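Practice problem: predict the structure.
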Amino acid sequence: MKKLYFLVVFYFLVLVSCDENEEYEYYNLATPVLMDLSEIRASFNLLPPREIEESGKIYTYNYYVFVNDANKGVHIIDNRNPENPKKIGFLNIPGNVDISVKDNKLYANSLVDLVVFDISNIDNIKQVNILKDVFYYYYNIPEGADDVDWSSFNTQESLPVDWVITKEKRLKNETSYYIDDMVFATAEASNVGTGGSLARFKIVEDYLYVVDSHNINVFGIQNLDEPKKLESVHAGFDIETIFNKDDHLFIGSMSGMYIYNISNPSTPTFISEFQHGTACDPVVVDDKYAYITLRAGNLCGAFDSSLQIVNIEDLKNPVLEKSYLMDSPYGLGVKDEKVFICDGDSGLKVYDKSNVQDLKLLNHFENINTYDVIPLASNLLMIGDGVLYQYSYQESGLNLLSTFNLN
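Answer:
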């Protein structure tokens, strides 16, 4: 009788266990860290150097390198000696994801606002203007999140400046509160700095172009201290990056690349679109080709990651020339006959692109995390996970100059 009872109990527990496994799942829940807008606007200031929490965009201007600390602000690095860079300060800008600089005026996003700083004295940076409520607010959902908890969110009083991700358990058929992968906009060329391929800000002559998830936001910056918000241009959905070549903007989105003419700079005009499968997508171009990295997984969609090379000789009819499999690419850059690919945890890859039908691998810097690159005239800057790398150009590829830990 005891044996029979034990078997019944065991069978019941197995059924419950199977039921639980079939009905429940674990997922990553992103919860917003909220801050009052008035408090955000009162907190822009220059602070002493500090450790970086999450590496974001990279930008260079004159002798300085600016590294975004995602949603928190910008680390400032003195790079007069690339072999021995020095961290000199942190510009606190809650909700910031990108910057751009022209003639010592630094433009930065802070959630819904555009903030202007005077950096002519790098040790005494001053805020000179703020354009309030000039951006639509799109939620920058952190990569790795499966769902979002909006239960305490109130746009009338506060906005999210950061996210906390926790592992939670739910019924498999439970309704998700995830709204979509919506990304906030974010800024770059006279004395203009240079950003990487993941930039959302782009300065071209007297205009600043800022892309958000749906629009190209246009600002006239003829008076650098007083940018004027002009009419925005609706450009599609899930827009991620912006790149400029001559009189054209190349917009990277999760579904394709859009090409706009800016010969009339206040009104970007659509020319054409190159479509690809859903994936995270920065783009850079040279005289003949556009180079697009497609990253699969999580919010990015897609099953395969790749580098796609698109012929843009006819801007009205971009055509895929060649595709190469990658592991998990993020940013990229081109200079002369070289293309530089930040392939996530697979490291930095340097190719000879003189024949795009048969890229030749020149260097592969393995065992490092890579995010974005900026090819400069004399050296290459790359940002990884809290580390700034600098390389000198060699005919056969790259030579490491320095590794600078931002922590």
